[in-house]
Structures are given as structure tokens and as C-alpha cells.
Amino acid sequence: MSIQEPLKLTKGLPDEVCPIAKVIDMIGTKWTFLILRDLLIEGTMRFSDLLKCLDGISPKTLSLRLKELEEHGILIRTVYPEVPPRVEYTITDKGRQLESVFIELKRFGLTL
Question: What pTM did the predictor assign?
Fold first, then answer.
């Protein structure tokens, strides 16, 4: 199914995995939305920069969330052969598809 095809909101069949549930499982965990927001805005960020932007997140949690997003193809992790090592995270084209969702969430949030 193409992203461009009009979709209707449905519950689906009991033996099907709901596409909405799949997305929520992937990005609905604590901090993941904010990590994605920052990468969508900034483009490429280092681990330390993400850690500074996300007040209250532990390095362990950030590392875990970034790894999950990388496994889903939402971001790319690039390690540079430097001392000390430099690691950067960049949102992929697949991850960029979430931008319109974030914009609509912001639009709705402005009405609250």
C-alpha cells in the first residue's frame, strides 16, 4: 500500500496486527517522541547533544531508545574513527515520514 493512497480509520481484523499499534509500540515509549522531535528539527545530533536537550533522561535510556530506533530504520548511527570516538545520529527518510504526525500533534497541542 502506498503512503499516498487515502486511508480510512478502521479497527482491522482480530488476526491482523494493527498498524497504529505497531507505530505506538515503536515510538510510544518514554523519551522516544522527544528524541525524534529533536532529530527532526536538528537533522544530525551527537549523543551528548541529545543528552543535554532531553533534561532528565539517563544515558542508559537514551542509548536504548537510539538503538531501538536504529533497528527500526528510523535513524542511522554513524561512528567516526576518532579519539575520543564521535557518534552521530541522523533521521532517515523513513523517519522523516513521521514529521507530518509531529506537526499535527503540535497543531492539536496548541489548542489545549
Answer: 0.84
SS3 at position 40:
helix
Print burial letters for 47-66: b (CB count within 10 Å at least 16), e (below 16): beebbebbeebeeebbeebb
Dihedral sign (CA 62, 76, 42, 106): negative
- The cell for 80 is 567516526
C-alpha cell at 93: 527518510
54 phi/psi in degrees, rounded to 5:
-100, 80
pLDDT per residue over 7-47, tens digit each? 788 887 888 888 888 888 888 888 999 999 999 999 999 99
